[in-house]
Amino acid sequence: MKTRVAILISGAGSNMAALIDAARRPDSGYEAALVVSNVEGAGGLAIAAAKGVATATVAHKAFGKDREAHERAVDAVLREAAIEVVALAGYMRVLTPWLVGGWRGRMLNIHPSLLPLYPGLDTHARAIRAGDAEAGCTVHLVTEGVDEGPILGQARVPIVEGDTPGALAERVKTAEHELYPRVLRAFCRGLERG
Ligand code: GAR
Question: Cys-Cys link to 2, which of 31, 40, 46, 181 (CB 3.0-4.6 A)?
């Protein structure tokens, strides 16, 4: 049995698409069972639907400032779909300890920097401004600290002369699309073996 994975998105969903495509390979070890967005009409939702993956939207706006109430609604959707592992893929919400605790050891995130460098936002501009020679991306387990959990895998890309945050973001995304499916597959296969 393949591990049932839900992918949480807020936007374009290019990492989500890479995870869905990789899941279709016979040796993937996981199934992209559900895509959940916190943003109505997020670009990734249509892509997921076109790929035949079930989608759900739990708009955070409806919950005002009550983050945990929103998370409880998201969690209910995940449990209903018998999800075993959650992959955050451009899910732009800071999670409360409630959701993190409920999925401890079973929730992964991809972050566009070589953690522990540049947690948070604007990672590409910060790496360029610092004069770094390389940037990259990290897949890690989600813990209470933002972008702080144990690292499962990283990929590096060069920062080139005259780089812009946009150009670097594209280069990093290409690396993300290879890294995330590879790490998720290994993670799910590890779960199978117990
Ligand atoms: C990705 O680069 C991902 O690493 C980043 O958002 C982008 C989503 O793109 N995530 C974060 O910044 C999380 N803090 P996508 O929607 O095309 O996958």
Answer: 31
